[in-house]
Amino acid sequence: MEETELCFPQLNTSCVKPKRPLSDTVLIYMILSFISLLTSALNLLVIISISHFKQLHTPTNSLILSLAVSDFFVGFILLFQSMLIDGCWYIGDLMCVVCCCIDYIITFSVVGNMVLISIDRYVAICDPLHYSIRVTQKRVQVCVCLCWICSLFCFIVLLKDNLKQPGQYNSCVGECVIMVSLSEQVVGFFIYFILPITVIVVLYMRVFVVAVSQARAMRSHITTVTVQGSRKVTAKKSELKAARTLGVVVVVFIICFSPYYFVSLADQETLFNVSTAAFLTCLYYFNSCLNPLIYASFYPWFRKCTKVIVTLQILKSGSSDTNIL
C-alpha cells in the first residue's frame, strides 16, 4: 500500500493531502500567483490615479475608486486561496475565518459598488439636468461608506457561528471549513445576487434606450448647434462614453459572478466535478483583474495616469494638478 501524506505528519488527527501530480500543483500556483499580482498592481494604479489627480475627483470616479479598492483586496485573497491547492490549511483556524470574512466583505462591497455605478449612470443619462444636484461628491462618499458598512454587517450575520469558535466544523487538522446554513445561503443569494442584478439590468436597459435616442438626436442636429450647444453635445458624448464603459464593466461582472453563485447553491458533487467548480471560482476572482483592463481600453485618462505613475513623474511637486483629461 502507498503511504499517505498528511498535512501535519506529527499529528494523528491531521488531514490527508490529496494526490496530485507535482507539475499540476506548480502550474496552478504560478497561474494564481500571476493573477494575484496582476490584479493588485492594476487596481493599485487605478487607486493612485483617482486619489492623486485632482481632475479625477468626481462622483463617478469615486465609485470606480471604491470598486478598485475591493478588487485590490481580491488579489490578496487569491494568495490565501492558493494555499488550499494541496488540500491543506497551514495558518490556523482563526486565519481561516478571517480570510473568509474578508472574502465575504469584498464580495458584498463589489456587488454594492456595481449597483451604485448603475444608479449613477442612470441619473446621468436619464436625468442629466438634475445630475449635478442629485449626485454630489459628498453623497457618493456617504453611499460608498454605507456600502462597506452593510458588507461588514452581512458577514457578521452570516458567519456569527463560525466566529464564536473558529475551526469547530473542521473534521481534521489542516482543514478550512466555514459553515453557512442552506436557508442563509438562499436568503443571501436573493439579497446579494438576484436583487442587485435585477436592479442593475433594469437600470441599464433604461440607460441603453435613452442613450440610443440621445445619440440619434445628436447626429441629426450636429450641423445646426451653436458653440454653446456644441459644448452640451460634447458633455453628452462624455456621459454616453462613461455609460458605455461602465456598462461593459457591469456586463463582465454579471458574466463572471453568475456561474459562481449558481455553483455555490448547487450540489457540486453531483452537478459539477472539482475541475469545473475550480474554474468557475477562478473566473469569479478574475473579474477583479479585468476591470482595470477595461478602463485602460476605454479611458484615455487612465493610460495617461499610468504613464505618469510608471515614469515616476507623479513624484514631482504639483503633479496632482497635471492635465490628464
TrEMBL record:
Single GO term (MF): trace-amine receptor activity
InterPro entries xref list: GPCR_Rhodpsn, GPCR_Rhodpsn_7TM, TAAR
Classification via SUPFAM superfamilies: Family A G protein-coupled receptor-like
One GO CC annotation: plasma membrane
Protein name (database record): G-protein coupled receptors family 1 profile domain-containing protein
Localization per Swiss-Prot or TrEMBL: Cell membrane
Sequence intervals crossing the membrane: 26-50, 62-84, 90-119, 140-159, 189-212, 242-263, 283-302
Membrane topology: Multi-pass membrane protein
Occurrences of domain G-protein coupled receptors family 1 profile (ranges): 42-295
Keyword Kinase: no
Keywords for this protein: Cell membrane, G-protein coupled receptor, Membrane, Receptor, Transducer, Transmembrane, Transmembrane helix
Organism: Mastacembelus armatus
